[in-house]
Design a protein that fits this description.
The structure is a single chain. This protein is an alpha+beta fold and 126 residues long. The chain folds into two domains: 65 residues, Ribosomal Protein S8, Chain: A, domain 1 (2-Layer Sandwich); 55 residues, Dna Ligase, domain 1 (2-Layer Sandwich). The chain contains three helices and ten strands; from the N terminus they run αβαββββββββαβ. Strands 6, 7, 8, 9 and 10 form a five-stranded antiparallel sheet that branches. A three-stranded antiparallel sheet has the order 1-3-2, with helices on one face. Strands 4-5 form a two-stranded antiparallel sheet.
Length: 126
């Protein structure tokens, strides 16, 4: 689940680890691709085969601080929150990112708004 992925990344950055390994899932891989494209983590690599696949993620730092300052989970397993493309707003005055699960796949909020597609709002990161 993506919540575990994000918390592991945030905790690893708090103790200044160089990289973190998390169990592989397709959803986690798509989320890490988005985080890499927007500069929240460094490069990542998929390793292993079969049920032992993992994602090896290099963490990114700036001024000896982690690139991720905070995460806010919007949808939870007990409560799903859906958002239309007209309701997508900039996060932290443009310095943050909202990740949305849409019919086009998992995309960043700005891309979903550009494609005029809404979906389940997963989380905000800044």
């Amino acid at each position: 689940m993506y919540t575990n992925l994000l918390i592991q990344i945030k905790n690893a950055q708090a103790v200044k680890k160089e990289n973190v390994r998390v169990p592989y899932s397709k959803m986690d891989e798509e989320i890490v691709k988005i985080l890499t494209a927007h500069g929240y983590v460094g490069k990542f690599e998929k390793k292993g085969r079969g049920p032992r696949k993992i994602l090896d993620i290099n963490l990114k730092y700036s001024n000896n601080e982690g690139a991720i300052e905070g995460v806010k989970f919007i949808s939870k397993p007990s409560r799903r929150i859906y958002i239309g493309y007209k309701k997508i707003r900039p996060i932290r005055r443009g310095y943050g990112l909202m990740v949305i699960s849409t019919p086009l796949g998992i995309v960043a909020g700005g891309e979903a708004k550009k494609e005029k597609v809404g979906g389940e709002a997963l989380f905000e990161i800044w």
